[in-house]
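Help! Submission page says 'invalid entity' but I think these are all valid:
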Amino acid sequence: MKTREQIKQMLVDTLMEVVTTVFSTVPTINEKMEKGEFDAGCIFAFIGLVGNLQGNIVVSGSEKSASAAVSKMLNCKSDISQQDVFDGMGEFTNVLAGGLKKKASSAGYGFNFSLPTVIYGESGFKVVNLGKMEVIKLNVYCADFELNLRLSFFI
Amino acid sequence: MKIVIADDSSVTRKIIIKMLRASGINNEILKADNGKTAMELVEANCKDIGLVLSDCNMPLMSGIEFIGAMAKNPQTANIPILIISSDGAVENIKQAYIVNSNVMGYLIKPVTPSQLKEKIGALLD
């Protein structure tokens, strides 16, 4: 049986592994394990998790950063449509959830996840979880983008 | 032979198409953003479809329901299928192979070009 800290570390490692594969590069990832709120950027992708591990994954970033990140996913240097930026952010969140599900299931914390939702706003958002969830927060930096990843969960 | 790509993410469809083209696979691609549309495409083109690439989590009709429907239709039952999904849980993978015996592989996103090339190259040979 894994300890709570071992499970958290497994989740962090999985998120990092997925990020590295999706962007075909090793981004700078700053790990911050903290509780509380944060200000999201203009584009905010969300996916709900339910099961032995429950909570949510949020990926956020400015529209410029999100566009650069999705361009990197598409390996495309030209401008991409806003719809593709929304879609790509949702899909990135979906892939993170899938990666976590595989690892968490093997450790006895299986869960299902929703279809992703993407919220777009000009002036950002404040995310507030109801209840005292554990929060894993990662900041992902590449040459031309920065995204915030936030996994909030109960186990 | 045509290839069907069923995935609700337009970005994923574009990524897969880029990977196929980069691997020298220039077959005509038919695209669907849910299982229901994919089933309609497969039924309408059943004699020309050489391969179906399908996601699992899609709106309207999931990938598992879609490939299950393919298995029940004698005209589409023998088309090879490759699942490309973010859902890598063992029970989901098992279910895919159970509902359609023509599932030839299950790739877990994120998929690398070499993984896709290796799987599809073997299926199209």
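Support: the input was valid. A stray whitespace character was the problem, and the output above is from the cleaned input. The first helix of chain B runs from residue 10 to 22.
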